[in-house]
Structure formats: C-alpha cells, structure tokens
Amino acid sequence: MSMGRLSMVAEAVGGTLFGADAEFAAVSTDTRSLQPGELFFALRGASNDGGAFVAEAARLGAAGAVVTARQPGALPQVEVADTRLALGELARAWRARFDIPLIGITGSNGKTTVKEMTAAIMRVALGGSVDPLLVTWGNLNNEIGLPRTLLYLNESHRAAVIEMGAARRGDIAYLARIACPTVAVVTNAARAHLQGFGSVDDVAATKGEIYDSLPQTGTAVVNRDDRFFHAWWERSAGRQRLSFGLHPDADFRATDIVVSGTIGFTLHGAGTALPVRLAMAGAHNVLNALAAAAAAHAAGAQPAAIAAGLAAVRNVAGRLRRVPAQLRLALYDDSYNANPGSVRAAIAFLGSQAGERWLVLGDMAELGPDSLKMHREMGECARLAGISRLYCAGVNSAAAAEAFGSNARHYVEVPALAAALAAEVHPGITVLVKGSRSMGMERVVQALAADSGPAGH
Questions:
Q1: What is the pLDDT of residues 183-194, one digit of tens each?
Q2: Are 361 and 397 in contact (CB under 8 A)?
Q3: Do residues 132 and 124 lie in contact, with contact meaning Cβ atoms separated by under 8 Å?
Q4: How many whole angstroms separate alpha carbon 234 and alpha carbon 429?
Q5: Domains and their CATH numbers in the chain
Q6: For 63-165, where are the alpha helices, taking DSSP H only?
Q7: Quick count: other Cβ atoms within 10 Å of Cβ 420?
Q8: I want to staple 434 with a disulfide (CB 3.0 to 4.6 A). Which of 157, 215, 334, 411 is the partner?
Q9: What is this structure's pTM?
C-alpha cells in the first residue's frame, strides 16, 4: 500500500525534492526498524544527526529520505529546514485526509489511563472484525511520537484516540495543531514538569491549549472538580462543552461509589443512570472513567458501549497494576511515573488497604526549585495516611524519608533499596512501588515479583 509520492511530501512540508519522485509505503525515523519502501526522516537528536544514517537507509531499501542537508548518493531526498517540524507538517496533512472523530487527551495525571478507557469504549461502540481505532501506542505523545502515530492512519480507521504530553508552554498547541481533535479532554492540571513550566498556572494554561484547536463543531470535555475548571470552560466557549467530575453539576458524574477489589458506581450522563463496574484499583479511576465516558459520548458512543467498554479495561502496566508476587505479597506496580498529585492518589489507595502497608518511593523528577519541599510533603502525607513503612530511593526522596519518621528507610541507589526490601518483606503485607520514569523503579517490582526467585530469609 502506498501513502503517496515524495512530491506530495515536498509540497506538504515546504521542502525541495532531489531525485526520483518515488512512492513510499510508510514513514520511519529509525534505521534499526526501517523496512524497504519506507520514507526515512533524518531527525537530529541530542547526541546524533539522522543525516549520518541516510546511506544506511538507502542500503536497507528506503524509498527516500527527508533531510536538512542533502546527502551523497542516489537515494531521493526532500530537503527541509527542520526535519522535526517537517514530520509534524506531513502528519498534519495526512490527518486532514481522514474525516473521522479524533479524541485528543492531555493532562498532568491520568491521560494514559483515560486514553485506554476511551479506546475500550470506542472499540465496543464501533464494533467490526477489524480494529476500527487508531490509538497512541505506549507513551508516543510528544512532537515525534504523535506525528508518527497519526501517519499510521488508514482507510480502516473510523476514529482515533490520541494522547498529548507537554514539557513546556506551547507544546500542546503544537501537537493539537497537527492532530486537529474533534473532542478535546484535559484530565487535570497538577504539579508536574514544573522545571519546564514554572508554576501550576502555566501547566493549566498549556493543557488548555488543546481547547483552542477545536472547531466550532468540536466538543471540549472539562474537569468540573479541577480548580482550573472555570478558566478552561471560558477558554472553550463557542464549542460544545461537557463537564465531568463528582461535582453535582457535572454533566457526567458518579454516585454510589463502592471501592473494594474493584470499583462500582452509578454513572449519570447523557440523560441516563448507568451501573458501571471497573476491574481496576484506585478510587481516582472513577474520575478517569467519567472523563472517558464523556469523551466517548461526544464521539458518538451510546450508554451500553460506555458500560461495556469500561468493564473491559484493566490497569495499564506500571500504573497501579497488581503484579503476582512472592510470599503472598499484594504488590502494586505504579512505577511508570510520579508527581505530587499521582503520589497522593497512590498513597490514598495504599492507605485504604487492610493490614501492613509499605510504600516504596523514588524521586519525583522535574519539579523545579521546590522539589525538596514537595518530597517532604509526600513523606508527611504517607505518615498521616497510616502507611506502615516508607522506603525511598534517590537524592530528593531523602526529604520524604525524614518527614515520614523512624519507619522510613532511604537509599541513594535503587538496586540497594531493592535488595534490602527483598530481604525484609514478609507474607501478608501490601507493597506499592512508585517513582519517576528516570528512577527505573520497575527494578524494585522485578525483585519482588513471583518469577524473580526467593525473597526474604
């Protein structure tokens, strides 16, 4: 299947074509996975220049390359000023070919879970033997990952669910301009990536950029419980709007919430009251489910599909997912990432469990000059929640251990913490592992998992 010719690429990205006007089947940004017939984008990274790999792309059978400086050889090339921006422009032009609902999701916490919930609902709503949905894979939610995802759109797709991440002002505006969402969701704004933003107000303003991209026929899905609700509601004026939350005035809200091993509640929205069962841990997932329900409804999903889709969802790997463990431990892997808001949610969940409860916390990254203060707050929060022990890894988490008190242990390195913890765990306790991606806290989970060998004495 052909995506088009290189002349189409040159026109879309404002580049100049040198060589044959070849057809290409797909787009690649990495020669390690490039297949014959694909178009290679020679992206410039922090430590390498993709232009150095053009010869390798030619050897592997690439149809052509997009470059900032023409490289020697017979391979057709489209020369542009910036290959990263060109990738975005091509994805924008490609997305414009498909008149389908596209649900864009951003926020400080919960966006990946809301993405998976929304996708589950939409798959039920759309039906069919062929997957009708394009969904962001993993965390490909930045200026490289989002365009790559959109370039997979094809005629079999009847809708798309796209996640958008941000590290600084303008990031969401850039991504939303490429994706052109018809439904836009902001899950929340919290103290995350403050090193790039400066304040939570800046975070909220950046997340709200997604609403600016909506057409007048689009729908803004807004968190009624967030302190930035009114700012986002006003910002999305002129479009259709739906609110979600526990607030009694929310368009999609929950009552009769029961949290045990699973979560049950009554979902009120779209003129109906719907019993919902989530096979997931964490009461915060009620809000995630409400956001997904509102977004899917805006994209055409009916109530029955909402209930069935939510019932099919499981915790995403690394996001409060229970993992089979040694010694009859209840082990929860929440190691994918961490910021103060998500750590508080994890502590609330752990505090609701019976018996002895141990929190394993790695450093929270990119919090800026108030990082130590925020880590200290997490230690105090864990102590007040009745957490039995706190194990900390990293530099800044020492402040959390100090605030927690005598039942805290602090280690600079994760392997040392994992070894100590594996030697001290005993049957019947609940262990929750959390930390920023850069800490690699999944190594602690692996040390305690059922297939990792003996733990304890």
A1: 999 999 987 656
A2: yes
A3: no
A4: 47
A5: 4-81 (3.40.1390.10), 98-312 (3.40.1190.10), 321-448 (3.90.190.20)
A6: 83-95, 111-126, 145-150
A7: 14
A8: 334
A9: 0.84
